[in-house]
Amino acid sequence: MLSTIAACVDAARAAASAGDYEGTLAHYEDALRAVPHGGTAADAADILRWIGNL
Fold it and tell me: Once rounded to an integer, what is the mean pLDDT over residues 28-46?
């Protein structure tokens, strides 16, 4: 698992650009799991919105 929310989101966007939607979802889920360790409610809301747009 990548350690920061930003790194997870960057990896998710790269996976989406490559057409790897399973990988995209996995990276967004990693980002969501990282929220309690340094994120905000706004970060969680953004991540959930991005997941919903897959």
Answer: 96
